[in-house]
Amino acid sequence: MTKIHKEGLTSILITSLLVLAAIVVMQLVFNSFKWYHLIIYLSLLIVWALVLYFFRFPSRIIENNDNHILSAADGKVVVVKEVFVNEYYNSKRIQVSVFMSPLNVHLNYIPFSGVVNYYKYYPGKYIFAWAPKSSDINERTSMVIEKDNQKSALVRQIAGALARRIVCYCNEGKEVNQGDQLGFIKFGSRVDLFLPLDTKINVKVGDKVTGGKTIIGTW
Which of 56-86 are b and which e, b meaning 16 or more Cβ less than 10 Å from the residue's Cβ? Predict the structure, then answer.
């Protein structure tokens, strides 16, 4: 079952009022109905439907597994590589990045259970989220979820060219469960995972993944 996420209620209300106002104005201005009026009406309804579709919240059964790292987002894997992380760890990690197009579900999920022991918000630019440098210069949030003393990962939400708001439901010290809601990014974005080097990665660049369902890797 698919619902509408709470983060979309304001946007949907504003869009609905604008579409309704446009239809009322057209009815008052035009004395007679022309064929192209139908195209305008249909275009307005399509815009409204797309906004509704963007904020969909699908019901998913999360199969919790202590050894699995689940995808934090729906979308396409655009990066799988070893990188040096100078935030929090100051060491090499495996980066797995998932790019979300405007048509993907934009709810983010907790990839594994643990405690958030680091959280920081960074204001920044809004270049296209599939670009590698977006991970360091775009508006973003970073958090480290620690499973135990040996197992932890940095999760980074990144705004894209269209995104103008990142919502994160995590804060330092919070206990989180695998598959819970991590946050929401509006209108196109990306999520990075920075995992330990001994993580067995189960995905490759180009793979389509589903948040809370696809196994990104195993500890």
Answer: ebeeeeeeeeeebbbbbbbbbbbbbeeeebe
Considering the domain delimited by 68-218, tell me its CATH architecture: Distorted Sandwich (2.70)
Q: Please state the rounded mean pLDDT for residues 132-138.
A: 61
Residue of 16 and 164 predicted with greater confidence? 16
Closest-CA residue to 72 (of 159, 186, 156, 165): 156
State whether residue 33 is helix, strand or coil: coil
Bridge partners, residue 83, by sequence: 93
Strands 91-100 and 189-195, by their bridges, are antiparallel
Angstrom distance (rounded) from CA 58 to CA 3: 6
Whether the Cβ atoms of residue 167 and residue 184 lie closer than 8 Å to each other: yes
Q: Is 189 a catalytic residue?
A: yes
Please state, in angstroms and rounded to a whole number, the distance separating the CA atoms of residues 146 and 92. 17
H or E segment to which residue 95 belongs = strand 91-100
- What's the mean pLDDT in 169-190? 89
Nearest CA-CA partner of 189 in 218, 168, 170, 205: 168
Residue type, 78: V
pLDDT in tens, 39-54: 888 999 998 988 888 8
Report helix angle 35-54 to 9-29, nearest 10: 170
Name the active-site residue from 135, 142, 152, 189.
189
